[in-house]
């Protein structure tokens, strides 16, 4: 479509052409038709009038058309303006942000309805937002507005809090642009949006960041984050203060340069492991800015972040731990050293308690001295009070001939001096040691550099001398000498204990022998009083012991069985002679007295602790398997086994021995009697074992009184 200017130009050109044609054609017509001047004048008047009228009509039509078109165009423009304004207003009013216009007087001349949605106030209250700014933010707002009013085109941005209709505070961010030079605006255009959510998010992020920073800075040690290029991305305060580097100096250093040279390769391997495997741990030493080396225990973990992969780790100063560990190791060595000494003393104690062999005891003492004191040789010389001499009883690291040739008087040589004066004698120097030793001992050529003789004294009595030899100079402290003194004292105690035990054993053996002789004497006296065949108690004792051994009774119990068998009739000492020695059968009253002798035995032996364990036979050998015995009427296995064994042997010996009131039974008949009464009067198991034992002895000669044939009397006559 042609523009208006083009259309006007074309119209004017057409008008000029048509006008020219009109005048040319009309002039030619006038010339041809008009005869005179008046006619031509009249025609020319008509020509001009027609031209004027036609031109007026044409221009009037054009003007009318233009007026109509302009009117329509203006109406269309107005409609478009209204539509555009409506769209703009709809956009402004429905925007989530507030658009306001502030006039030079500071009043709000326009404000979008979005204030209702953002702050809850009605749009009628144009100053709703400005009048409800937080008092702490008013100064900031005014300062920003003053900056925007400086000149047209100036702008200012500011953040402030504004009261919401619900009473809460909202964070708003406004941008003010000076458009005072625009007649349509004539003030500041302020664009405001609600940034409460982002502000709170920023605040939370700030709090969390502060918290994280506080935690990181509070870590008891180093914290660091390093990227793959070796840049230290993050470090806590302790990292800087501990190592003594400034942040600027730290930027110029590769992390590996913070470590001592000998640890850098291991650190590099650990870092590579973190980025490949995910984690690593090692101990390495930092070199601080002042050059001091500090050992640290370091950990590293691979962490994926939006900005890339990092190694995040911590480090703890282990200087004190290493010092403590070193001290612990020293204490452990000292403790083991002392424990070794205690172990040595304990082993000697065990030897004292567990061994009565003096030679083994002395070997233990010398072995402990050699191990704990680390000497080349040692010996123990025992003192003989009767002879007044010191003789070697045990040695370690010395020639066997030295023992044979060591026989010293008190005061002779270094060892004799130590024994006589009862003090420790210490000699150092090869010549001094050789000169102090008795040549006959054969030690002068051994080349000993150091010699110590320590007397062994217990309760004021000299027991011997402990000698210690060393071929090199011994730089020993007080602790070493304390151990030597302790071992010597323990050795003296061991020797004294061995002497006491030996003496006690002799005394105990003599006492036991006296007890046994006494018991045997009592037994013979009882045999003589009862006028039984001589040797009855001995025979039944021997047979009882043999039978008890067949039953597997321990030896320590058989000792008491033997004593009980010897004293089985000790209670008859309480039976009157007219009853005990009566040649014929006893009356009922006499049997009552006779049956009391087990009770008499119990009352007699119970107070004697030495014989208390032998009471079973004297007290229970007249009990019977079926309960018909006396004094308590025990039956079966209620009867002690030793008493059941003795009962069988005693009855057998009584049946096969002569008595004043009857002759002895034959061996076979006595055994038949035992078999018949097995399970009635006697334990059947004991009878069977006894018969088996005698069967094995058939080829042997019978003891006097055993197996002699004769016509027996009834067993009921037995007492």
Tell me what you see in this structure.
With 719 residues, this protein is α+β, with helices and mostly antiparallel strands. The protein has 25 helices and 16 strands. The strands form three sheets. It has a six-stranded antiparallel sheet with strand order 13-12-11-16-15-14, with helices on both faces. A hairpin with a 5-residue loop joins strand 3 (155-163) and strand 4. The longest helix has 58 residues, at 37-94. The chain is elongated. The chain starts with a helix and ends in a 23-residue tail after the last helix.
Helix content: 40-55%
**How big a fraction of the residues is strand?**
15-25%
- Top CATH class of the largest domain: Mainly Alpha
Shape: elongated
Alpha-beta classification: alpha+beta
In the sheet with the most strands, the strands line up as 13-12-11-16-15-14
**What's the gyration radius in Å?**
68 Å
The separation of the N and C termini measures: 169 Å
Q: Which stretches are low in confidence, meaning pLDDT under 50 for 5 or more residues running?
A: 701-719
Number of strands: 16
| Continuous helix count | 25
Average pLDDT figure: 80
CATH H-level homologous superfamily name of the largest domain? Hypothetical protein af1432
Main sheet makeup? 6 strands, antiparallel
This entry's quaternary arrangement is: single chain
